[in-house]
## 1
Amino acid sequence: MAMKLIILGLLLEGDKHPYEIQQVMHERNMEQYIKMAKGSLYYAVEQLLNKGLIEVKKVVTDQSRPDKTIYSITPSGKLAFQQLLKKQIQTETTHFHPMYTAMAFIHLGEEDVIREALSQRIAHTKLQLEMLERVYNLYGIHAPKGSQAIMENAHELCKVELKWLTKLQDESDQGLFQANNMSSAEKARPYDE
């Protein structure tokens, strides 16, 4: 659903070849905040074409290159875009953080391994936060409001992640994750209230 929404949205901005769509997605760093399967772009274009949601605007021929098919959105595609947009906004999901599996067993880990892993994760998160700030400062001011909201949300989530990781590192330094250092109340309580 996300790839079709992206394609229709970018074609609403103007006619494009699939490679141009891919370039715009890359320029806007969409792979950083939208989950997309590799190779799904051309398949989605074909599906949208078969459903009459996009159409071939023109085919550009060049002796030294393969033909380049430029697509445009149809009136049906514009209606489908609105429906997909609404559906995507209303979609609910459960967030499965990659670290949750490790956290379930962290009390069994060696202190040095945990400390090193958390340090590396914190360093990576700090770099990610710096990158988000740079991207926002370079592009955010001139980006559409929706893109600004994405950047702001990603920045805030990254700050929360860094705060959480730092807390985990402090707790690790205190040896609180080791099973023998936990009180029975802590062992029974799954999270801080």
Note: The mean pLDDT is 87.
## 2
Amino acid sequence: MTQQPQQQQIKEGKSTAIAAYLTFVGTIIAISMNSETKNTFASFHIRQAIGIHIVYFLVLALISGFDSWLITIPFWIFSFVLWAYGFIGALQNRKTIVPLLGEHFQKWFKTIG
């Protein structure tokens, strides 16, 4: 029994997609892993992961000036939810757009991956 082309594409790109979510360095490694094959599943998750990591660093810069848990906790939760949403999507073999910003990540980083 042969696999459908889309399922084969997902199977081949899954490890790269997962690596993209494991720190910013993992994203750089995933880009390198995907540079020759240009797997569409991996590229999708690489773009999502880059966006999530950038949002994380922007949130980190924004909240570093606050000294209140009531302000910082919601930002950390927001960053974690975005990361978990994308990571779980990669684990479940789905191209899941992260809430609020995922469509923008796909547009902004279309040349990456």
Note: Residues 25 and 71 are 28 Å apart (CA to CA).
## 3
Amino acid sequence: MTPTRYAFVKANWHSDIVDRALEGFCELIPASQVDVFDVPGAFEMPLLARDLASTGNYAAVACAALVVDGGIYRHDFVAQAVVDGLMRAGLDSGVPVLSVSLTPHHFQETPHHMAIYSEHFVTKGREAAQAALIIGKARAAVAA
């Protein structure tokens, strides 16, 4: 039996923007089929994604975060570690783990940037839902 539930993990840093990805995700996948989990930041997402994927309860796990360049090299390390960890969680568990993480180099907490990234997260959430549905169909076809 293929799971019909989806997990959505969101980082709390810049939650006013990141939460918008869930809105986009739920435009295609009903909110009643989505379990939502909050983590402190992007760095904590891969571990929880792996744990959720390993339960076998989810068709896919989507993870959303905004990793901003604060002017120090840590931004690059965090972004790479998150992407690598999410990919590993999916490969190790056999469940699609999708990244809805953005790493802008020129983010500032201005009304202009807040509006741009808030809207972009809706789009990215919608794209993650599309990816979850498409990969689910493709894997079902391969298994048949």
Note: The helical segments are 15-28, 45-54, 74-93, 111-143.
